[in-house]
Design goal:
mainly beta; six-stranded antiparallel beta sheet; 2 helices; 6 strands; globular
């Protein structure tokens, strides 16, 4: 099932299948690239950042960035 990263819940896993071209370069340095597997670690309250684990490292992304990343989620 395809979802925006911003719509995923804690403990959900998936593979990044698309990143909006306007943010691709800025998130690449965080290890967030097409084809990478990720897991949502936590979701902060009140529309706060999404904390994900990519390549064994935790990274937090604001909701605006997370909305621009499409993930194929595990069922």
């Amino acid at each position: 099932m395809k979802k925006k990263l911003s719509d995923m819940r804690p403990a959900e896993k998936g593979r990044i299948i698309d990143i909006d071209s306007s943010i691709r370069a800025s998130v690449a340095g965080m290890g967030i690239r097409t084809g990478e597997e990720l897991k949502v670690a936590t979701e902060q309250p009140i529309r706060g950042p999404v904390v994900i684990v990519v390549k064994g490292r935790e990274t937090s992304l604001g909701r605006g960035l997370a909305k621009s990343i499409l993930v194929e989620c595990e069922e």
